[in-house]
Amino acid sequence: MSEFAILGAGIVGVTTALALQEGGHEVIIIDRRQPGREASYGNAGIVQVEVMEPYAFPRGALDVLRLALGLGNDVRYQLAALPSAALPLALYYLNSAPIRYRTISQIYRQLIGRCAADHDKLIAGAGAEHLFVRRGYIQMHREARELDTDAAQAERYRKDFGVQSRILTNQALRGEEPCLKRDFAGAVHWQQSRSCVDPGGLVATYAALFRRRGGTLLEEEVRSLTQPASGWHVHLRNGRRLATENIVIALGAWSPSLLRPLGVSMPMIRKRGYHRHYKADRLPGRPLFDVAAAALYCPMSQGLRLTTG
Ligand SMILES: Cc1cc2nc3c(=O)[nH]c(=O)nc-3n(C[C@H](O)[C@H](O)[C@H](O)COP(=O)(O)OP(=O)(O)OC[C@H]3O[C@@H](n4cnc5c(N)ncnc54)[C@H](O)[C@@H]3O)c2cc1C
Known about the structure:
D-Amino Acid Oxidase, Chain A, domain 2
């Protein structure tokens, strides 16, 4: 019987496994694919240390209407998906009310506050420094009004939490990022964030560290879980059954389906994110978020990665 079975070898599963290993536990990770091939592969790679509050559900009627009518580029949804998302959406809305949101943000900040240092330890252990760019990330605004709102938030974060940022005029932005071919009203440069040029490769590198430290990785699909008198049984696609004392479910968007038969309801809204790679003569010096287009332009080892933002 293993002590801990971690289901899912994305960034969450692999880093959880490393943390448990460090605590002296014996760990096995199970994933149907190689580590870091799903959401942990196709993202923008930013370790966003400046985000002091999670994204709240918009509370303004006009904002909600704009999203509902699909007027922006930031949210697209299918009407048919709404009934199954109704409960999680309602909870999201309620948890974004000011008092709840303040409490949640305080807890959230404890995680954000340690993510850079936790990554640094793993980066050093895994030899992954070459996968990182430490130049922050830039949020570019096409409208002066939106730039002002963002600049005010940056100032609040500086005062309340000591987050470092600077405001760039269009000229300064174009000077620092010569790959840009259009003008912006200006930008906020969040200076402390770092970004990864190969997020999937990073998970693979962390997984290699986990193996070097004696961990086991099993490539198999998990079909279901059952609870015998003590511990857990993990039922695999190949018909095998694995017994474990403890289980960590880190299956990302697939977690709720495994939990449902156990009577555990996990309210989750599943978003679909996209990315594409392009050849570029000149890559950005760091991720650039074009807020109005809801798109991120990221320098990656594969070239220019454009992701939904
Ligand atoms: C376009 C985009 C941009 C993003 N940008 C950022 C960013 O800049 N910074 C940031 O912090 N976050 C970003 N994110 C979010 C980030 O990518 C995710 O939060 C993160 O990757 C989730 O990791 P995970 O380990 O939970 O899930 P995943 O990486 O999806 O891992 C889940 C794993 O479970 C496995 N699995 C599922 N079902 C089974 C099963 N039945 N049996 C066995 N294995 C199974 C899958 O194969 C997969 O490996 C972005 C996301 C998107 C889509």
